[in-house]
Structures
1.
Amino acid sequence: MAALSYQVLRPARALSSPKLPSLLFSIRLLTSSSSSSIGSGVDLQAASFGGPSQGVPLGRDPNQRNVQWVFLGCPGVGKGTYASRLSNLLGVPHIATGDLVREELSSSGPLAPQLAEVVNQGKLVSDEIIINLLSNRLQASAAKGESGFILDGFPRTIRQAEILEGVTDIDLVINLKLREDALLAKCLGRRLCSECGGNYNIASIDIKGEDGNPDMYMPPLLPPPHCASKLITRADDTEEVVKERLRVYNEMSRPVEEFYRSRGKLLEFGLPGGIPESWPKLLRALNLEDHDKQSAAA
């Protein structure tokens, strides 16, 4: 289901844009103006130094710059999968805050012990840490000349949404929905290749429809033979932790969803099944069917 229609008219290509450096500068100002307390306020007026980007209404001339989209959705819903596919299709960087956290954990940096405790308990990482990691990632994007982005996992709190709103213009927020029993099975079936870092899922989900809801089938996403013996389970993918993550997410996400809904930027998309069934329907909801055909033919 969709709350609004959306259209992207241009072929995927990289465009130069001053917006990433401006966003980076503004986020650094906002981060430095706040204390380390999770409940501390943020001086959004600081964003005026970097200059918030001019609003680009839906239906704009897409050649002005690449898209700036956000993916919302519960842990395990498939944000990374679909954001990555759209990133490749549109030629913009996919920035997943979950990946940024895992990279920081594996780096054994100064934040690693604190992050490990938070992640293993299924809690949300503090706004300050997430914003700092995101700022560093945007700096790397700017250095490589990238423009536009698809954010995955940010914002998760109303405070993060307000910070993002203060420093840049988000064109569209795609909110992926999936029934909770399927979500739980997906999270428990996730596997990671310890060698190449590839993400797979061994869960085969086959849920019979009831109360007027259709059947749902989501086949497993199995690894290639050379990865099969190297699969590991993420430390936070236990049933207890997954249920806690879903509870925390549902509690924190409602204000964020309403924040973007009230601004006419929220596209709610219920996943009908696995990738083969859901991907074409998502492209249709985004009016990207022709775009996909052009890319395939190129």
2.
Amino acid sequence: MNRSITKSFQTFDEELECVICTGRLLNAKFLQCLHSFCAECLERCVTVRGNIEGTCRLRSIPCPLCREETILPDNGINGLKPNNLANKVVQALEGNDHCAKLMDSELCCESCRTKRSRAVAYCQDCRHFICRDCVGSHSSLKQILSGHRIKPLNDLRRSLVKTKNGYKDANHGKTCYQHNGQVKTHFCETCSMLVCIRCTGDTHPEPHHVCVEAKDAVKTRLRSIQELVEQGHDKQKEVADALRTIDRQRNEARHVVRCLQQEINDAADAAVENALKSIDFQRLTLLKETDRLDEFLTGKYDELEAARLGVGSLLSNARSFGVKLMKNPSVKVLLTFDKLNTTLHNLVSEQWDKASVDYIHSITKNVRFESQENAQWVSVGTLVDPNQWSLSRSIPIPESKSGEVSSMSYCSSGSLFLAHFNGVVEEMTVDGKITHVLNTGSDIRDMAVLSDRTIVILDGTWQIAVYDPTGKKSRMIHSKNGSTGFTCLTADADDMIFAGEFHRDTISVFAKDGRQVESIPAGGITPYRIVVANSGQIVLSHSPASVSVLNRDGDVECTVHRKQWQYALVCCDTKENIYILSGSRDEKKLISVHKYTLEGYIVECVVRHVEVDVGSWHPRIDCTPDGNLALVTKTKVDIYSSRSVIERERKELEQEDSERNEMQEENSQP
């Protein structure tokens, strides 16, 4: 045994001491208080206490150290849990001591009183090294020492194996240290350990333990191993097939990814080429316009220069003629005076048309070039996950209301409100159960629901009616300043009411009590659908089949329009995404829904070319509080949910990482 290990064992030798017999623990057993004692010492304690109490069967035993009571099992002390660590340490120490004594050439008899006789054998039952005389005594006292097993020291020394740290017994582990070296010929199935024949009736008795001969246990396990080896052979084939399948599918996946990358590169190259062609065409067009501007300005300045040169030439000639007349006065002065005088007077009094020059100069000064690099975003395309969105459930609309839905809205609690043209508002649960009905008695054009379940309605007169949560009409909001009414309405997260107005190109903002708090220019747009993003930006559906995003100053930040759209309706989720429901211009029953950013960039297709029964009115869409998309047609409300495989896998991996980190933190805490 390693000397450093032996030394370490000796440093806590007190922990291996039984306080009852003051010797090393032998077949140590745990009490309920986790103190350990020799099994034989505990048996003696049970016997003594039984004699005191006058009973042969105790139900419990107090700990000799702390006095805590331990309930005894049916089989008494043997049923207590063994202190395996202490037993193994003691066994190792005793085995090491035994080997050390065997190697001592001056080993003396441990049985004789004189302690001077040299030992020649070892009694495995007395556990003493004995001399020749004591060996003889064992033979002569057969009735007392019958059955004691005596081993010559030379035979024991031959069983020692030399190691780099000393010697060890080659039979270590094969004999039972609890029963004086009995060979372990049996195997306890319950404890999974080798035991001797005496252990089967002492520390491993039936019915609490199942012991079989070791050779039978070996045969049983060999048969089990053989079956597992055969199963492993079949499993190896299965693993090989799986690896080939994985390798094939990995190569297919790589091929698909390479094809996608090539398609993206081709699309990007084509987009760049088309963009460059478009830019080059615009550049040539603009340069031609500048050439025409240069020709116009040059011609104008040439005309002005020619006019000034003409006046200068006439003036120079008239002055020269006048100077000659003054130098040579004659009758000729009388003949030319009138014409010369008139000419010089006209030339001197002539006013320069500076306004024409300033006009031309103003054109030069004010002409400029405005870059429109952000006016149009060039899209290469999108990588579409075919399983990203799918129809999760449908809520049927009662036949009596079929085809009459004019608007829908979700409140923060998750309830769905459906407004019908005939003036009825129905509140429904997520499974389609109607929980509340409000009859307004007026046609409904549009509707919004506030956080406290107040219902705001655009009625048949195109004015706004507000109903409190009890269903009572609390106020009316009328359009002003020459407007004939409102076109649409919505409410933001702060319960502010936004309404578009006819013929005013204005978005009016009202508080819940009806006060107008803001008027926002709509950039020349009359909307028929309006939503407000959490960031405060206003999203409008308007003709012709377009969606525009405005800031709170009324500036149009972007517009989305497609020629193939017949109409475009919009809603907005809590993550600043907008969803555009569009109807096909060619097929009126085909609709699609695309997700865009507030900057007008397309993100993905949610619903593509779905055939619906739209009736005489367009479908409606809205985002649910949990991030799904609700689509209302003539007969039902369809709920679409995101089913992204990639996103789901990413979230599952994040969840696993989070749980793993939590477990590591818990394990690291003292």
3.
Amino acid sequence: MPSTHTDRIVDRCRDPRVWLLTLVILGLYVLGTSVNDATPFGMLAAPAFLFMFAYMMTLGTVLLTLSPETFVTFFGGFVVFTFLTSALLVSGYDRLARRVRKSPATDVQA
């Protein structure tokens, strides 16, 4: 029986790489908000701040409009957004890896 789109999404959510990437991004965000931006740790948090910026431009604006006083709703939305984006990144990486494995090997001679 062929797998449905929902089955593939559930399988992707079970992938430990998605959970790990989500935790790394959220950890970098928390680390970046607690240290000075001029330190190396602050600079490591830059990708996580890009995630927050993307979130604010999309779902975050909607959540703040619907319930501006609820920080838990806003940060919970950021966690979900980060998780879904991580799942998309891992899925894209898997597709690229499959495409590279299928392509014929090319020898580059100097």
